[in-house]
Model the fold of this input.
Amino acid sequence: MVDHAVGENVNQVVDVGKGIPGTPPSHGPAGPPALPDSPGFELPLLLFGGFRTLIDRLHARLADEGHPGFRPAHGFAMQAIGTRGATASEIGRRLGVSKQAAGKTVDRLLALGYAERAGDPADARRKLVRLTPEGLAVLARSAAVFDELRAEWSAALGADRVRALEADLRNVVPAETAFRLDATSWLGGA
Done:
């Protein structure tokens, strides 16, 4: 993986394109030349890079639109909260993190005004975290920005290629893991 610090790449597991046998060269605007298969490590890195590019662009736009404190973890947590609300324990389970880690993220959502605590009408002993109108609005805006970003990819790659990419990913990604929120559990967080 690559972290960016002051314009340079650090913590690189693989430095693509610098002397690794079988690494394809970069290509210009005319498109890629016919290449042999890339090394296996490139696929997950490119998929992650595509994901990171979309997420980074989303958050840059949200910051420009008045949500500078909104972070990717907040979006995952808000999805875990859902429209009906959830307890901190449920949020932690859905995210694959501890109740304490979920609680820290919830505290930040509360401070930003995207969530609130409320009593559970089904059980007076439980406290639910619910999204505020502002939280629901930022999620709706996020969905609209993702549509805009998808349209940008379609303009760059062609709509048919983007639809084919999505269809191909649906074919290889098991349905039960396609929309999981617990990325931190396999990245070592808890």
